[in-house]
């Protein structure tokens, strides 16, 4: 029991890092399966380039879009955005662009992993490069006269000239070098972004930890209370339907109240609220609104506030 509790505590403390690690491992494993089981280079001057690029880039694009779809923050931003009563929310200017940039950076993890692992494996790149006329002109300089014609056959080990078949090693080396360069660039950019965002953080290290603990507890309690309230309301409605009676009054937040706690979070150093719900209950009696005011900004380091929800993965 103690071991299970330790594992659970580890998951709660590092669920974001573990989630990204799991996504990376699944993406890398998927790429290996595709390259060994599904991928078969046609070894044709016409098809090598498009076939190799499709396997290299299209799954990356699909993973990128999937990253958007699985982000709770995406649906928090888009849900109700095009409704006639909320026309202004789609034109949020710099704030909206910043949130989209953060969503894109998070969604790019899986596709970049796919491309990097694919380049390290080399199969997709070898196929695509062998079908490129520009690559053929450069690689075949000073080689056998039939090199350009036989280059598309290299990935299938069907080139007759030995010096042409040896180009497979060059293609693999190029692919792996590009793969390691991509990995290095991603790590450097991630390190710079994390360092800058932490450096510009408006709150201290320990307060940030407290903030994340608060959000976990708030969402846990919100889900529990929402389940209880929804169950009570459903029971009352079903009971009245069968008995033909009038329902008892059951207080439920209005549409406007739901909208106010579902928008994007902005930070204001004058009023440090840990969530939109926290902000709403403190400002309800004063202004009946929690709209952004002067001094409110979107802080990258606080992006996790919008990433939480009653369910971590939205229903699609």
Automatic annotation (TrEMBL):
The chain crosses the membrane at residues 20-39, 51-70, 177-196. It is a multi-pass membrane protein. GO terms for cellular component: immunological synapse. One of its GO terms (biological process) is regulation of natural killer cell cytokine production. Its main location: membrane. It is found in: Membrane. Keywords: Ion channel, Ion transport, Membrane, Transmembrane, Transmembrane helix, Transport. Coiled coil: none annotated. GO terms for molecular function: monoatomic cation channel activity; voltage-gated channel activity. InterPro entries: CALHM. Belongs to the CALHM family. This is Calcium homeostasis modulator family member 6. The lineage of its organism: Eukaryota, Metazoa, Chordata, Craniata, Vertebrata.
């Amino acid at each position: 029991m103690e071991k299970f509790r330790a594992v659970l505590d580890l998951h709660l403390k590092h669920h974001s890092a573990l989630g990204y690690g799991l996504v990376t491992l699944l993406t890398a494993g998927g790429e290996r399966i595709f390259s060994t089981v599904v991928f078969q280079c046609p070894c044709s001057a016409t098809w090598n380039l498009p076939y190799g690029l499709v396997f290299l880039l299209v799954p990356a694009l699909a993973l990128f879009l999937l990253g958007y779809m699985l982000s709770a923050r995406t649906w928090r931003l888009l849900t109700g955005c095009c409704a006639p009563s909320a026309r202004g929310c789609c034109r949020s200017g710099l704030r909206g662009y910043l949130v989209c940039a953060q969503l894109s950076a998070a969604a790019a993890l899986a596709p970049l992993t796919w491309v990097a692992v694919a380049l390290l494996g080399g199969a997709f790149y070898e196929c695509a490069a062998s079908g490129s006329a520009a690559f053929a002109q450069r690689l075949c300089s000073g080689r056998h006269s039939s090199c350009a014609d036989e280059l598309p056959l290299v990935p299938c080990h069907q080139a007759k000239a030995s010096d042409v078949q040896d180009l497979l090693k060059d293609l693999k080396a190029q692919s792996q070098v590009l793969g390691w360069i991509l990995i290095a660039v991603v790590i450097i950019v991630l390190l710079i972004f994390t360092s800058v965002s932490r450096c510009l953080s408006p709150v201290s290290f320990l307060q940030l930890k407290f903030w994340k603990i608060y959000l976990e507890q708030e969402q846990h309690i919100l889900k529990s209370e929402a389940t209880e309230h929804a169950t009570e309301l459903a029971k009352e409605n079903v009971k009245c339907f069968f008995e033909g009676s009038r329902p008892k009054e059951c207080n439920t937040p209005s549409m406007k109240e739901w909208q106010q706690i579902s928008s994007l979070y902005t930070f204001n150093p004058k009023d440090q609220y840990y969530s939109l719900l926290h902000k709403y209950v403190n400002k309800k009696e004063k202004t009946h609104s929690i709209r952004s005011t002067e001094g409110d900004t979107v802080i990258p380091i606080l992006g996790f506030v919008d990433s939480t929800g009653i369910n971590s993965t939205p229903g699609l």
